[in-house]
Amino acid sequence: MANRLQQTISLQTKISPQQIQMIKLLELPTMQLEERIKREIEENIVLEEDVDTAAQTEEGELPEKISVEEYIGKEDDTPAYKARINNISKDDKQRPVYITEGHSLGESLIEQLRFRSLDDVEMVVAAYIVGSIDDDGYLRRDITSLSDDLAFTRGLEVSTEEIERVLAIVQELEPAGIGARSLQECLMLQMRRHTLDTPTKQLAKKILANHFEAFAKKHYEKLMARLGVGEDEFREAIEYIRSLSPKPGNLYTDTGIDAVPYVTPDFILDNTDGSMRLSLNTSGIPEVRISRRYRDMMRDMVAPDGTVKAEDREAVQFVKSKIDSAKWFISAIKQRHDTLMRTMQTILDFQREYFQDGDKSKLKPMILKDIADRTELDVSTISRVVNSKYIQTSFGIILLKSLFSEGMQTVSGEEVSSHEIKTILAECIAGEDKRHPLTDENLMDILNDKGYRIARRTVAKYREMLDIPVARMRKQI
User: If you compute the radius of gyration of the chain from its CA atoms, what whole number of angstroms results?
Assistant: First the structure.
């Protein structure tokens, strides 16, 4: 067969590395953006943090012949992507309060073990058990797995009986209930620390020891009949059980950094005088500019006619590539600012009634496509903007994703938000008779009577989203 050349035309879409970086910058919340900018400053030698406020220079392309006029003929290259004017000195800025990190739960348990008379092997086993306890204070792994792990990782042949014995020592530590393998064992461990000197406590122990499954399922009538006790006596026993902690690990105050979740809002909404003013929170984000030192360096290496000596050409090309990268990064930060503000302003205009006072019943049905159509941006871009972003308002800090909800039509044809349905569900459940809590069918009937066309499985879905248990688990006596 003869070889022949054939020319074909095809259309392909490729994302450049710069576009990928822009997408990643768009996804970053405020805290991570600060870290990203600082990392870029470390990696790009021509970038530096600007401590003074200055105007940003316009971008320009280097011609084919090496000329750096736009780099060396301007003053400070400082971006103007801050949302608020920085008219205060550096010393006036609010500084964070650093909290001294305390002992973790594991460190506290190890410290308590040192006061026990344990030999070296027992201490290793106890430390391994403590390391397997989760944040709630439970030992989720079975004894056989612990024995195998000790054999493989530590080279210790320890029987399951020996591990059980050491586990019993760990379970004697504070807080009470630590190291339990089930909720029943956790409550029983706490009850052992108490003196069962009243009929109420003795009844509570009998319920936990012999009828825990029925108690967990709230089969109270069957339990009262089986135990032969009255309603008042049974109620007191239940209240005593509820006073015990189901998660003893949470009782330990961990002052470590991970114990206290901090949310830094990405947007700030000022509504003090009735007019809404939206701004981007950039208080912790450093401003960057191209270093004057490298502009001066290129000025020295470039002749007045724009030519460069042969020995300086490689250095000039290197600095040029870094400056191009720095100018793109500054431009990407500016574009991120514009996209975020454009999207958030559209959301604010769409949900203006809600942002007046924070009443969730005023939230309109809104999906990503609604904002994408109004901003003329892609749905994926809107999704990246609202992902993990928060807005600070006069009524609290709001997660942007929580503002989006599907619409539902009423009998009259009016479209309402699912937030309104959830609010009514929460109010109905809060005002129900706890002896006879409302089932999902009852809640469906109530909503249908109010004009909301909704199915029982939709009621169940919204109830679960509100973290409300089923009717049987809400029952009280």
Answer: 32
Whether the Cβ atoms of residue 76 and residue 50 lie closer than 8 Å to each other: yes
Q: What is the mean predicted confidence (pLDDT) over 160-164? A: 92
Cα–Cα distance for residue pair 225/233, rounded to 1 Å: 12
- What would the pLDDT profile of 17-60 be if each residue is shown by its tens digit? 667 777 888 888 888 888 888 888 888 888 888 765 444 434 44
Peptide bond preceding 175: is omega within 30 degrees of 0, i.e. cis?
yes
Q: Which residues contact 433 (CB under 8 A, 6 or more apart)?
A: none
Q: Which two tokens stand for residue 65?
A: 């012949």
Contact 166, 122 (CB under 8 A): yes
Please answer whether residues 188 and 201 qualify as being in contact, where contact means their C-beta atoms are separated by less than 8 angstroms: no
The CB-side HSE value for 379 (13 A sphere, CA atoms) comes to 5
Question: Which residue do the tokens 């909404």 mark?
Answer: 269
User: Per the structure block, which two tokens stand in for 290?
Assistant: 């191209």
- Pairwise CA distance, residues 212 & 217, whole Å: 9
Distance CA 272, CA 282 (A): 20
pLDDT higher than 80, residue 372: yes
Is the distance from CB of 360 to CB of 423 less than 8 angstroms? yes
Rounded CA-CA distance 456/444 in Å is: 6
**Interacting residues of 16 by C-beta distance below 8 A, sequence separation 6+:** none
CB of 57 closer than 8 Å to CB of 77: yes
Q: What is the pTM of this model?
A: 0.57
Helix (DSSP H) and strand (DSSP E) numbers for the chain: 20, 8
Query: In what side-by-side order are the strands of the sheet with 396-399?
Result: 277-280, 267-270, 390-393, 396-399
Q: Which residues does 403 contact at the CB level (< 8 Å), separation at least 6?
A: 347, 351, 354, 363, 366, 386
Which CATH superfamily is 406-477 part of? Homeodomain-like (1.10.10.60)
Rounded distance between C-alpha atoms, residue 468 and residue 470, angstroms: 7
Least Cα distance to 151 among 171, 169, 133, 124 occurs for 124
- The upper half-sphere exposure of residue 109, i.e. CA atoms within 13 Å in the direction of its Cβ, equals 30
Query: What are the beta bridge partners of residue 77?
Result: 290
Grouping H, G, I as helix, E, B as strand and the rest as coil, residue 452 is strand
CA 317 to chain centre: 43
Each domain of the chain, given as residue ranges in start order, spans 15-82+262-404, 103-173, 182-254, 406-477
